[in-house]
Hints:
elongated, 11 strands, transmembrane, 2 domains, alpha+beta, single chain, Macrolide_Exporter_MacB, eleven-stranded mixed β-sheet, cell membrane, transmembrane transporter activity
Amino acid sequence: MFTYYFKLGLRNLRRNPALTALMVLTLAIGVAASVSTLTILHVMSGNPMPHKSERLIAPVFNNGPKEDYSPGDEPNDDQVSYRDAMNLLASGQGDRRTAMMGVGGALQPDRKDLAPFNVTGGGPTRDFFAMFDIPFVYGQAWSEADDKAGADVIVLTRALSEKLYGNANPVGKRLRYNGFDLFVTGVIDTWDPVPRFHRIVGMGPFDQNDEFFIPLSLAVRHEWNNWGSTNCTSNVPAGYQSFLDSECTWLQFWFELRSAADREALQDWIDGYAAEQRKLGRMQRNAPNALYNLTEWLEHLKVVGNDNKLSAWLAFGFLVLCLVNTIGLLLAKFSVRAPEVGVRRALGASRGEIFRQFLVETGVIGLAGGVLGLLLAVGALFLISLQSKELAIVARMDWTMLLATFAMAVTAALLAGLLPTWRACQVTPALQLKSQ
C-alpha cells in the first residue's frame, strides 16, 4: 500500500498547484537556511584525525613572569618557548614528537616564465609527517641527520610542485628560497585537514594551507623569523640567540602517544619537568600544566565560537517558523478534501488507512521540499564561499549533510503533517455524504 499511497501523493501534488508550490517553497527555505548554517558548523567542528585524535597531545605551560599573576589565570600563550620545545623533543616521551614554526619568503623558480613569488609554509621536525599521516606523491621526508644538521632541504606540496615543475618528479632538484639553494626530498599529496589543527595558533583554523615544509633546525640555523604568532611577556630580546633563550612562546608542539592510556604518565612527566624548571628559576607562576588531545585542543581554542552556535539555533528557529506556516497550509489543503475522505470512509476505509495515506502524501511534499531546499542550500553555500578564503573552506557540503538535508525535510514535513492528517481522519462520513 505504501507504493500506492506514494504514487497517489505524487498525483495529488498537481491538485491546487499554487498551494502545493507555496508549501514546498516554505519548507525548502526553512530547510536551506538550517542546512547551510549546520553545514558550516559541521565542518568547523569536525575531527580532522578521528582515528588518532585521542593520542595526539598538545602541552601548554604557563611560563610567564610571576608579577601580576593570580592563581587560575590563563597561560600567557598556547605555544611553547624554544627552550621548552628542545627539551620536549629530547625527552623521549610518546611515540613521536614534533615542534613547528611558520616560515615564509621569496621563492625563485628556475623557469623563465615564472617570476619570483612569495610562499608560506611550515617549519616542523621530521616526525611531523608520520605523526599526521601525510601521504607522499614523490620521495619522502628529510632524514634524521638532516633534522640534526639543519640541512638545506625542502618538501613541497603537490600544488606548489605542479606550479614549478608540472607533472615531473622534482625530487633531487634544487630550488632557490630566501637566497639559499634547497634540495627537494619529497612532494606530499593533497593534505587538507579542516580545521587546521596542527599549527592553529600561528595560521588560524581555516586560513590558507602550508605550501611547503622545511626543517625547524634549518630555519633556526639561518635565523629566520617566525611567520605566525609570537608572544613575549617582556620586550623581544636583541639578537637571535637571545630570542631563542628567552621565554617568548612561538612554537606549536605535539606528542603522539602509543595509546590514550599513556596520557596520565605523560602528565606526570610534564609536571616533573615543570618542577625541575622551577628549580632553575623558570616557570615561577607554579600554574597547572595542561595537556589537550586534538578535540580538546579545538574546544580550548574555541574554533567553534558562541556566535556560530547561536547562528545555528536561530536557523533552526526559522525552520520551526516555516513548519508552523506549513501546518496552516496543510490544514487548508486537507480540509477541502473532506468529501473525498467521507466517501472513502463510507466505502470501508479505516481511520488508520486515511492517516497513512495523508502522511505519505505529506512525506512526498517533504521530498519535494528537500530537493528544492538542497538546491537553495548549495546556492547559499556558494555565495557564502565567495565572501572570503576562510569561508570558502568551511562552506562546502559533504555526503553527511546531503543525506541530512533530505532527512530533515521529510522529518519536518511529517511533523508538520501530523495535526492536519489527524484532523482529516476525524471526518464523519454521514455528514459528508448528506452534504453532497
